[in-house]
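Fold this complex.
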Amino acid sequence: MAEELTGNVLVAQSGGPTAVINASLAGVIEEALNHDCIEEIYGGLNGILGILQERLIDLAEEPQQAIRGLRYTPSSALGTCRYKLRKEADFQRVVEVFKAHNIRYFFYIGGNDSQDTADKISKLAASTGWEMRVIGIPKTVDNDLVVTDHTPGYGSVIKEVATTVREIACDAEAMGQHDLVYILEVMGRSAGWIAAGATLAKRRDHPNDAPHLIYLPEVAFDTNKFLDDVAEVLKKEKYCLVVVGEGLVDSNGDYISTSDGNQDSFGHSQLGGVGDYLKGLIDQHFSGIKTRSMRPGHSQRAAATNASKADNDEAYLAGKAAVQAAMDGYTDKMVVLTRGDSDQYACETGLADLSEIANGVKHLPASWINEDGVSLNYQFVKYAGPLVQGEVVVPHENGLPKFVKLGKSAVQPLLPPYEVGA
Amino acid sequence: MAEELTGNVLVAQSGGPTAVINASLAGVIEEALNHDCIEEIYGGLNGILGILQERLIDLAEEPQQAIRGLRYTPSSALGTCRYKLRKEADFQRVVEVFKAHNIRYFFYIGGNDSQDTADKISKLAASTGWEMRVIGIPKTVDNDLVVTDHTPGYGSVIKEVATTVREIACDAEAMGQHDLVYILEVMGRSAGWIAAGATLAKRRDHPNDAPHLIYLPEVAFDTNKFLDDVAEVLKKEKYCLVVVGEGLVDSNGDYISTSDGNQDSFGHSQLGGVGDYLKGLIDQHFSGIKTRSMRPGHSQRAAATNASKADNDEAYLAGKAAVQAAMDGYTDKMVVLTRGDSDQYACETGLADLSEIANGVKHLPASWINEDGVSLNYQFVKYAGPLVQGEVVVPHENGLPKFVKLGKSAVQPLLPPYEVGA
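Structure:
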């Protein structure tokens, strides 16, 4: 057992929301209540930004049903930020806030930028002699954190995307006469993890199920190949369902998107995303083809009503594991998810150095992409399949999901105001 | 009791799919099995098009679990079409097919175009002395059929839209600092019924909940008012959530959409829908505002995993009621849904003349739109609220919804081929 460290907890959320980031928050709060050396449980509003501004709330004052409700409420209940600590004064200020509020445990739920921030704060606190334990909790729909097998948030977003594919495939099947192309643009600016996840919509042993073509940022886009791909599918199938990652690039590594300077055949700049761009290509090069482009955008990462139970459970588990690791004396670590080597999926938690997480990006392995460049092989399905298992039952009121809003009882500031970004 | 008419049933689906059109099909099949005077239950593939081509399937051969699965499988399991009977020969051919297959009961599930077709077929059959009963079953996400209080398919699409609004509102709430605009473009080319439904996302007694602004095709769009509306919301709220119907028009009645000849400030034509157009306006006129435009498109009408149980039950009921009406001797009618005058919502079925349905369009009442032009009053909420009640539990396999595909055992054609559209 580690030496007991008595004091307060501070937990905050950062970066883009997911459907299950609040499940991690619930895990932190519920586990923190189990330990007598933890006196107060504070939340920082809007991530590191609110901590700089000393906008803390008392999470122990929230009703139990609100904390339970966090398990199925999407997005970041504490608010989030994209603010990056820029200058030495920012870091100093964070440690001052910790000292003023006797924060001995800091849990930061976020992606690699956030883990980088946590790492720096942790090291600064140690260098000033402030004893505390800093543990990161992974979060991102992008699934690009290294060391961890996968990241909470990813399973739910691909469950949503694959569900949408199954649903619009029924729609297209009814409408199509070898003349219909549906294009679904999905999130993923720098990697194709989310677009790849759409392949789960295929039933086992039905390789011709939708999605027929998946365009990944990892594979340089080629217009002629795309048009050939679509024509080939339409020969065999009643419709062609295309999934495209928003971060698709050409062979120069430039984004392919109508909003990024691409021009249509009339030399006009075009608004809209890459899905609209692909629609434009089809409309230009084929006649008699109906094309519909869909861009659900941020609704993908907020789709709590289609969240994966496996993902949700793991997000909650990661929150609890962070507190347990801190109780065991660890600091400057992030919780990681691991899976055993057996064929039966079993997720456990481990720890990795924050610095190791901060500096890496996990790419979709090239060996999981088929030679055609537009489909994923069984290795990807084996990897991603377990992450979407089970459904989260969201309580409804008047026919709509009943999400919680925290009461956010403010903790009295103890320091002079601090000018952020000055 | 009507005189017993012995023969076969033919049922077909037409127009754009909905999340519950197959529930009506299941209702027809299950009720038809109850009546001894019905010998065979046939389905016509791709609506009237497949009937012209004599592409019929034997629905009684489908496994019971497939028919049960239709209750939660989105889109038209029989396939649909947008084909309109054009010439006298088309109508004659349909009646020939009926006679060849001893079709004495024809059930057509569709919108007002489809009911118009059913009406004409019914009258032609009668004029040639072919005794049969033709009953229409209402279907459309657009909710624009007259006489019926509402249309199966509408409750589910607005439940999906309002759920998405609640989910992305959580996302925006976490991200916004009085500088964020989310725009959700929803279906509805000619009427604002679907956009209006988004208002159900507001909790009771929380008028400031999202959606903050709803732009309806019924209210002529004014750019300056729009920019003022957005600025006003951002003064008070952390973010502004805009819902816009795809059929928004200006004061001349012209569609406002980047794909309809509108030009940006550089004189460039723009691709994309009206949501992207509104995003462009904000980006041009404000600085420091982040705008995200989402266009889920056809996924809205296919979202079986978010379907309304009330809507699903009523769609099923409408299918059964059509068969019962035919058994009672009615013909040339469409099933309509009615609600009593009591405050407690109770849906019952009735009948209306097909000709009455075919020639009307139900508009969103102007008196349900508030004076601000961007919100709906309690009369709309009272109307639409009951339509989204209850959740349909969709069975899942491997974490994804398990939809059914019919086996489609073909009925032997008995007539010479017919050239469609010749």
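The radius of gyration of chain B is 23 Å.
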